[in-house]
Structures are given as structure tokens and as C-alpha cells.
Design goal:
Elements lengths: L1 H16 L1 E6 L5 E4 H7 L3 E5 L8 E7 H7 L5 E8 L4 E5 H7 L2 E6 L2 E2 L9 E3 L11 H4 L6 E8 L7
Amino acid sequence: MKRLSALLLMVSFQAVSSQLIIRMEDQSAVVLTDHEISTQFESTTFETQLPWFENRKSFTGIKVTDLVEFYQLTDVGSISFLGLNDYMSTSQINDIRRYQPIIAYEIEHEKIKVRNKGPYWLIFDLEKYPEIDDISFHSQMVWQIKEITFHKADDATQP
């Protein structure tokens, strides 16, 4: 019985961990599954060197700007990314548009597991934009993302 309980817990954790909650002000939250993310949005792949790896890695995911366009969000000022460990960072929409980060779901063409910073990880292409290879942008690259919140440009309460 204990083994069955442990197995069910592991399976349910995997099912929950591959969902992404999208919050937009004045609207109900949307829950996207990994299947919806990989089929409803065009994928983007690039290779870059990150401070957490010795070598360059290939990352595949969806552009954050594609989410903005998909949900027809016209007055976004910033976007917050919340990880499974409750670490949160907020990126300004101007930086998101300029540097086109992705919400990666694959590293080296394999799904990112929770133990490897998945299932979703905000990645900036530090090789394409070396001017952002610093602590302020490194700290924005939230891993194990469980929730994304879009803040209006005039929202004084945003983080």
C-alpha cells in the first residue's frame, strides 16, 4: 500500500509540474499543459552559454512575446515569473521585447525535468546579447516556473 501511495504521489506531482499558470489582471487564470504549450505556440531554439553550465546548451521553448500576443495583452508593463520554490523575478516588457527570452521546456532536445530546473525556465540568449550577461539578467532567469503574471503598465502594485 505504501508503494502504491508513493507511486501515485510521484505521478500526480509530474502531472501538476508540467502545467503553467498564466495570470492576467481582470481575467481568470489560465492553466496551460505542456502539450498545449508545445502545440499552440511556435517553438524557438537557440544555443547559449549560461553561468550554471560549463558548456553551451541548446534551449527550446516559446517566446514570452508570443504569450503576450496570443492573449492580446496590449497594456503590459512587466511580467513576473514564479518558481516552484517561490522565487520570483519581474522583467520589464521593454527588455522582454528587446531581448526575446523564451520559456524553455527542452534542453538539448529533451524535456526539462524538475530536478534539472524544469519543467519551464526563462532563458535569455546571453551569446546573442552579451550586454545582458550580468547578475541583473541572470537573476531574472527563473527556473522551475509554475506561474507567470502579466502586470499592466500603470499598475503601481506590481513587484
